[in-house]
Write a structure and sequence with these properties.
Blueprint lengths: L5 E7 L5 H14 L4 E7 L5 H8 L4 E5 L7 H15 L3 E4 L8 H12 L5 E2 L3 E4 L1 H9 L5 H12 L3 E4 L7 H14 L4 E4 L8 H9 L13 H9 L2 E15 L1 H18 L4 E10 L2 E7 L7 E6 L3 E12 L3 H19 L2 E10 L13
Parallel strand pairs: 1-4, 1-5, 1-6, 2-3, 2-4, 6-7, 7-8
Antiparallel strand pairs: 9-13, 9-14, 10-11, 10-13, 11-12
The chain binds guanosine-5'-triphosphate (GTP) and magnesium ion.
Guanosine-5'-triphosphate binds next to helix 1, strand 10 and strand 12.
Length: 363
Amino acid sequence: MGQTPWLFFVGGFLGAGKTTAINGLSKLLAQKGTKVAAITNDQAAGLVDTFFLSGEGIPAEEVAGSCFCCNFDGLTEAIDHSVQKVEPEIILAEPVGSCTDIVATVIRPMQHLMRDKVSVFGYSVLVEPDRWKELRQGEDVPWSMKFLFDKQIEEADIVVITKIDTLTHEELTKIRSDFESRYPHVKVFPVSARTGSGMEEWLNFVQNSVPGDRWLKEIDYQKYAEAEAEMGWLNAQATLKFPIPVDGKAVTGKIVEEIRNEVARRGGRVGHLKLLAVARTGSIKAGITVSGEHLEVDGTFTGPLSELQLTVNIRAAVSPGDLSETVNSTLTLIKNSDNAEVDLSYVNTFRPSPPNPTHRYST
Ligand SMILES: Nc1nc2c(ncn2[C@@H]2O[C@H](COP(=O)(O)OP(=O)(O)OP(=O)(O)O)[C@@H](O)[C@H]2O)c(=O)[nH]1
Ligand SMILES: [Mg+2]
């Protein structure tokens, strides 16, 4: 048994780029000969993120059914499993994107109760430029999103502006100075996990950091519960079979676009809509993080395909019932337009229940 591992928490709002960053950081660390593992987290099982990271060759554990803060023991078990299986030097952990108060409920208890087993780096919170613009400038943005987003930044040791490959130099300068004027004491790193820009600088800084004193001294848990419960959550799995082979990338894109449009028709706002489509000839991860913004697609299939396994995760400010109907009507559309045989094998929809942390260290 080697040294005890370091925990590297990568937080931030839904769709900020946490899983993609964890993938990029893992690859950077592996190049340096550092053994890594990941822990994902969600309110329910069937996660695109876990499948994605495992598919990238990163040993990933999942804490599903409850967030890290409300299932601290689940997190410690996941750490134990990870240590037994791969003896990682660094464990990258991704809290649920709608969660906040992570420092008081997870990081500080971890530093105290698990001090013989793990050490913890300073807390990184990722901020997506389109979300920053939407929440700072948007008019009809749900208060719940603003509340959760602001609380997340308030407790960050390090803020990472993600996806900078989508910005011009001027846009980045503007967001950065806007950010720094509101939060003058936070260390900021602009990065792109897609191009690798800024990733090494962020990693080097974090590896020499420890959690500071920016934990939330107080937070209204009633308001926090109401904010989280404004979001509907859906996880689903389906198999699509096509008698006449199809272009899998086009079908995947069509499904995501249709879900996005249907959520909008129902008056909802997307937190993160993500879909993993796996076939024998490859896999695609496609998603939309901010209503009205473009579709992101990673991965590819080689040639037409006759079967697709889909994992769909939607988090949106709309009711769970609306999300179920959205998925049903989208799959019916694909059935009709592409002659698909559809087997929807798993659907779970809900609103997150009120957060009830196992521990809370607020002084
Ligand atoms: N252009 C660009 N897109 C990115 C980058 N990082 C992530 N994305 C895209 O942003 C979307 C969300 O990324 P994820 O890594 O899944 O975000 P997340 O924060 O883990 O999302 P949740 O787990 O749902 O909260 C995906 O479609 C990614 O491909 C980046 O550096 N550049
Ligand atoms: Mg993720």
